[in-house]
Each structure stands twice: as structure tokens, then as C-alpha cells.
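Q: Here's a chain of 211 amino acids. Please give me its 3D structure as C-alpha cells.
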Amino acid sequence: MAKTGQSFVNLDDFEKQAYASMDRNALDYYRSGAQDMITVRENQRAFDRISVRPRILRDVSSIDMHTSVQGQRISTPVCIAPTAMQRMAHGDGECATARAAERANTCMVLSSWSTTSIEDVAASTPGAQAPKWLQLYIYKDREATRRLIERAQDAGYTAIALTVDTPFLGRRLADIRNRFKLPGHLTMANFSDQGKAQVGAAAAQSAGDNA
């Protein structure tokens, strides 16, 4: 946790605080990728290549960054991507992220591997105006997949962000070294006991099968 009065002015400040305050199990899960993390570094380089296009001799007395996504108006073209198991970082986890997205009036995409249920995240922002989406894998258990979609719809989520590039999980070397596991006080909140066991086994696959 940050010290009282400590200010964060950019993403680097948040990253430094994470290194100072989080345990290795959680920190490495969040910061690492698969194998030699080549794709992670390529993504960072791709992001660094994005430039703000300058507009010269324009009236900038009133700047409007609003846009729309799937027909819903948001305040900025920056949305919150799905991140699994957020309560490893803070007790409020996904609910805090949802409140931040609502305050900023932008879209949050909830990971289906969240440590807070679809319904509880929705309830954390009653009367919300900003859109919420659910990230989803297509599981071998098609009925479990269908139930997640129906629950998201019933809770007011307006779209599904479908992950299609993960036929199997990558071999995450940091998780193997740490023997990664979800802390005992947390659960995969969107799944039944059977589903939690199946998803938990998949999440720990590289850390267990390859250890």
C-alpha cells in the first residue's frame, strides 16, 4: 500500500510501488508473460511507437476526448483491459477497478478469472453509466460457458470480449519458479466448486506440470 500523502503521477510510479509492496507470487504473475516474454517486450515496443498526432494552429480552449464503443459513449478512447485475480493486489480488487472506470466514465472489461463475481462487480457501481464487458474463454464445458454469458447479461454487462488465441496456456517461467498458486483466502469467484477446480488446474498448469 502507498504511504499516506504519496502521489502517483504516471504508470511508472504505480509499478515501482507494486515492486515495493506486493509479494513475489502475485507480482510475478502480473508482470510476466510466457516463455522468454518476447511478446511482452514486443507489446511494450509497439505501445512506445504510438504517437500523439499534433494539430497546429487549432482552438484548444475546449478539448473533448469523448468517443463511443459498441454504441456507448465514453469519456476517453482508453478502456480497462481484463486482468485476472485482482484481489491478489488489493482486497477491493475488481470492485475498485469498476468504481474507477465508472468515475472516469470509461469501459471496464472484467476477466472471467476474476476473484470477485460478475454480480458483485456490477453491484459495486449501482446505477452505473459506464459500460462493463466480460472477457470470456470458450471452455470445453459449453454449459459453463453459456452460464457465464447469461450471468453477465443479467448483471447488465453489454458485450463479451472473446479470447480466441489461447488453445492452451503458455509456459510462464516466473510462475513455475514461484510455484504459483492463488492465495488461500481467494477463489475463482465466477465458477462453481467443480469449475473452480478445473480453471484453477488450468491456471496452475505451467507451474505444476512443468515444475
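Q: Can you summarize the key feature?
A: The radius of gyration is 19 Å.
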